[in-house]
Amino acid sequence: MTQLSAPGRASAAEATPPLERPSRRLAAAAFVRGAALLPVIGALLVIGTLVSPAFLTGSNLALVGQESSALGVAVIGESLIIMIGGMDLSIGGTYGLAPMVAAWLLLPVANYGDGTQLAPVLAILVLLAVGASVGLINGFAIVKGRLNGFIWTLGMLIVCGGIQDGMVNGQSLYNLPKTFTWLGYDSAGPIPVSLIATILIFIVVGLFLRYHAIGRQIFAIGGNRAAARAAGMRIDRIRIGVFVAGGILAAIGGLMEAGYVQSVAADQGYQEGIIFNVFAAAVIGGVSLKGGRGGMLGAASGVVLLGLVQNILDLGNVNNYWIEAIDGAVILSALLMARVVGGEVTAE
Q1: 180 near 101, Cβ under 8 Å?
Q2: Is the pLDDT of residue 15 over 60?
Q3: Please, is 232 exposed, middle or buried when counting C-beta atoms within 10 Å of its C-beta (0-12, 13-18, 19+)?
Q4: CA gap 105, 124 in Å, rounded
Q5: Ranges 34-38, 51-55, 341-345, most confident
Q6: Tens digit of pLDDT for each residue in 62-76?
Q7: How many Å is the Cα radius of gyration of the chain?
């Protein structure tokens, strides 16, 4: 019996290290994927300096950070969903619908609100609840209902956009209270509050993925769902939770944009095509569409890259009709350069 139990104990003791070793390898791979964009960002800094002497000024870089913060928070949510092997197109709808519902409840009828005139803090809680609700519906439909994630969230994206537009008859909502716009508009000295908040969220989520058990399980689920289930992980609960987190983060990103522009536009989110930039930033930042790979450094690098490109185009007074083509060309070039620098680990 002793001879039989000893190997059994050895196997149990050795069960933990194999789980830790892949975690370290995933962290190293995520760092390589994230760092692969740094040469591209460096090239953009040089180009921006040549385009305009105002590019490297503190005020302009703070503006880039403020303009990119809302996108960054939404990218974090989408990246988490992609890491578990999922996809959520409706993040673009939640990004607009959640702040629209909150603003609608804030404002009087004369300003196209519903007249409830909810307190700003309560309106923000409603915003978070809308984001969580959309994520929860998506999670249950995809995880429990086993519906196709792409088709379901595409439909949800359109539904959210339609509700957002219909509830205000296509009007944008202005005259929002300062408490509601503070996150996206105010600054702490020269640094935008939204930029500080976004950096903190990136750091917290990055540490969560690296050191928390559930964070490591997210990678395991995305990499091999069957093996994760066999290991006793609560697959369904974690997947649904990630969809909820993605919805909440999209709502926060929408709140940031509403604060920055001091209004909630009827076309915010779905009709402005924010989901394309969200996916572009995540994927060029090394978050694998196959799931199980990626990291916050890469996602942040993708956001910075897109923000710098947009700023350079603005400073260069590029014709608006050409901006989308140039954006697409830069994304393709960045992906190719990241592949060359990062090697095989950035290929997918």
Answers
A1: no
A2: no
A3: exposed
A4: 10
A5: 51-55
A6: 999 999 999 999 999
A7: 21
Count of CB atoms situated within 10 Å of the CB of 236: 14
Distance CA 268, CA 259 (A): 12
**pLDDT score at 299:** 92
Q: List Cβ<8 Å contacts ≥24 apart for 179-183.
A: 179/120, 179/121, 179/124, 180/102, 180/103, 180/106, 180/120, 180/123, 180/124, 180/255, 180/258, 180/259, 181/258, 181/259, 181/262, 182/259, 183/252, 183/255, 183/256, 183/259
- Tell me the whole-structure pTM to 2 decimals: 0.88
Helix axis angle, 296-315 relative to 274-284, nearest 10°?
120
Place of tokens 């990291």: 295
Phi, psi dihedral angles at 289 (to 5 degrees): -65, -15
Tell me 187's DSSP state: E
CA distance 60 to 307: 11
Sign, CA torsion 16/20/21/22: positive
Asked if residues 97 and 105 have their Cβ atoms less than 8 Å apart, the reply is no
| Residue 54 CB partners (closer than 8 Å, separation 6+) | 60, 315
